[in-house]
Amino acid sequence: MTSSHFAPARLTVGIVSAGRVGSALGAALERAGHVVFGVSAISDASVRRARTRLPESRILPAEEVAARSELLVLAVPDAELAGLVSGLATAAVVRPGTIVAHTSGANGITVLAPLTELGALPLAVHPAMTFTGHDEDLTRLGNACFGITAADEIGYAIAQSLVIEMGGEPVRVSEEHRTLYHAALAHGSNHLVTLIVDAVAALRSALVGPGLLGQPLVDGQPGGLPERMLAPLASAALDNALRRGPSALTGPVARGDVAAVSAHLDALTTLDPRLAAGYRALSLRTAELAGSDPDLIDLLEDR
Question: How confident is residue 196, by pLDDT bands cut at 50, 70 and 90?
């Protein structure tokens, strides 16, 4: 029996709340043929997003959204999820048989226990994607994997069907490994942003001066020369890392060039000691992965 046999062809969907993730998933579910009848939206930004992405949906209190849903999507920040679930359970507004899916990466289905006890079917459906609130969110969902956790095979079949309908790829994540799963994704995405922002800042300082025809070389705005210089290099490095793993490592750390790395640390410390600390920490990890010269590892540990 295929997963599609477990999921109704058309669900009445409610979303709490209409943030970047919730509004994007709501639009994807509508595109798949489901009906998003209502969303909760408190902030001005959420209201605007709901009206733009889900113009046929009513903006309603969370309790009313929950009471009328066949599929209830809880798309609130991780830290707010437990409180929301507790409040909905206390109000007893979720009907038995309601599919309740949250989008938190850090949580599995345990956090939904108060609603499960009332007869809800619990799902954790986390899109492994960053959301900006702009049009590209919906396009990116079509290439995203979703970490799914359920209580049983029927739950997994429903979660898989919903993800496939939204254009994503479902990937099972066990309850006990949700935190590790989330940590890995945060490390690989959020810290990549920090790394690139720091590298751009250092490049911007290095390139200050007159350019061609006497024009300023760096204007200090995003999308300038530092970003254009770094983009193909960073894109190639990411592609190589995903396809070749640690063997993709190049550069002075991988080569064990103690003098070059020491000079880098001096230059970066002069620019910004915090940036230098980040370089040192990542260089140490890189040296360990590459099996670099012990003298280089000693330098990085001592600094």
Answer: very high
Choose among 18, 21, 12, 14: nearest CA to 103: 21
CA 87 vs. chain centroid, Å, equals 26
pLDDT band at residue 7 using 50, 70 and 90 as cut-offs: low
SS (H, E, C) the chain: CCHHHHCCCCCEEEEECCCHHHHHHHHHHHHCCCEEEEEECCCHHHHHHHHHHCCCCEECCHHHHHHHCCEEEECCCHHHHHHHHHHHHHHCCCCCCCEEEECCCCCCCHHHHHHHCCCCEEEEEEECCCCCCCCHHHHHHCCCEEEEEECCHHHHHHHHHHHHHCCCEEEECCHHHHHHHHHHHHHHHHHHHHHHHHHHHHHHHHCCCECHHHCECCCCCCCCHHHHHHHHHHHHHHHHHHHHHHHHCCCHHHHCCHHHHHHHHHHHHHHCHHHHHHHHHHHHHHHHHHCCCHHHHHHHHHC
Q: What is the extent of the structural domain holding 72? A: 3-173
Is 169 in the same domain as 188?
no
The confidence score (pLDDT) of residue 142 equals 84
Write down how long the chain is: 303
How many whole angstroms from its chain centre is CA 122? 21
Structure tokens at 274: 């915090």
Mark whether 75 and 154 lie in a shared domain.
Answer: yes
Q: Do 135 and 109 meet the contact criterion of CB atoms below 8 Å apart?
A: no
Is-above-0.90 flag for pTM? Answer: no
Distance of CA 61 to the CA centre of its chain: 27
Q: What is the mean pLDDT of residues 102-127?
A: 98
Question: Using 50, 70 and 90 to split pLDDT, how confident is the model at 2?
Answer: very low
Q: How many domains does the chain have?
A: 2
Of all residues in the chain, what percent carry a pLDDT higher than 90? 83
**What's the CATH code of the domain at 41?**
3.40.50.720
